[in-house]
Amino acid sequence: MAGPMPDDYEIAGLAVPESINELHDLLERVAADHPHLDPGDLMMFETAVIEVAGNVVEHGRPKGKVVYRFTLGVRPDRIVAHMREASDAIPQFSQDSADQLDESGRGLALSRAVLDEMSYRRADGENIWTLVRNLA
User: Fold this and answer.
1) How many domains does the chain have?
2) pLDDT of 87-132, one tens digit each?
3) How far is CA 63 from CA 8, 17, 100, in A?
């Protein structure tokens, strides 16, 4: 008899374009490990994760040298992720979606639209993103 499915995942590395592929691979593993998860929930969550990660890759400083750590937890009622990046750049992020209407902020606005919770904070020289999608 198989043991319980893993509920927590983590990857870390440099925030470079190749790291986006690693996130896609991780999310495919989550889907395989948790076949009960609604594919629509996973697709929306993955969209948000990739938008935030793309933002880190594009805007993180020093470019190509930003270290990130991504953790994901599958809970009975939600999927939760934290993206920590040790970047010198501080994102122009607002909790108010009306502030995200310019072209440069659309990826984050899209992320907010498909998530139930999205927050950003800066602590100890890191940008910390929290992403939550409640499960159907």
Assistant:
1) 1
2) 998 887 665 544 444 445 678 899 999 999 999 999 999 999 999 9
3) 29, 11, 23
